Amino acid sequence: DEWSNAFLDGLKGNLEFAKHNYQQALAYFNRSREQIISMGMDVNFRSIVLNHGKTEFMLGNYDNAILYLHEAKFWFQVINSVQFESDVNYFLAACFEKKGVSDSALYYFKNYTLLKDSAQSLEIKKTIIDVSTKYETEKKEQEIKLLQKESEANALLLRIKNQQIIEQQLEDDKKSQQLVLVSQQNEINKLD
After folding, report:
1. Which of 60, 65, 110, 181 makes a 20 to 30 Å CA pair with 51?
2. Among the residues of the chain, which ranges form H helices?
3. Which residues contact 11 (CB under 8 A, 6 or more apart)?
C-alpha cells in the first residue's frame, strides 16, 4: 500500500544517507515525501523528514535543509523527543552558519545546547531511576527469600512441636495405661 511504499522509500533513503550516498538518499527522500504529502503527513515519518533535512545540508542545499529541519522539529516537539529536537537544532544552527546568518545560528545553537543538557539530565535521571528500581527490586527479592526461609524454618519448628506433642500424648497415654494396669493389679492384689 502507499504508506508502506512511502515508509520503505524513507528507509532506503536512511540507508543511503548512512552510507554517505547523499544524492541517492535525496532521490528516495523526495519520492517518499511526495507519497507522504499525497496521503497526509504522519508523525511516524519524523525521522525520514529529519534525515531528508540532513541530506539537503550535506549536499549544501541549506534553504531546503532548513525547511525540512523545521518540519522535523515540529514533529519531534509533538512527541516530546528532546534528544532528536536537540539534533535538529544542531543542524539548523549549522545551516544558518553556512548561510552566514550568525544570529539565527547562535539562536539554534543555544537551543541545541539547552536541549542537549536537558536530554543528558533526563538520561541521568532515567539511569538513577533504573538503578534505584533495580536496587529496590533486588532488596525486595532478598526480603522475599528471607521470609521464605523464615517460613520454612517456622514450618519445620511447627512440625517438630507437633511431633513433640504427639510423643507427649503417646507418653501420657502410656502412663495412663500403666496407671490403669497398676490400679487393676492393686484390685487383683486386694482380692487375693
Report:
1. 110
2. 2-18, 22-39, 46-58, 62-78, 82-99, 102-191
3. 48
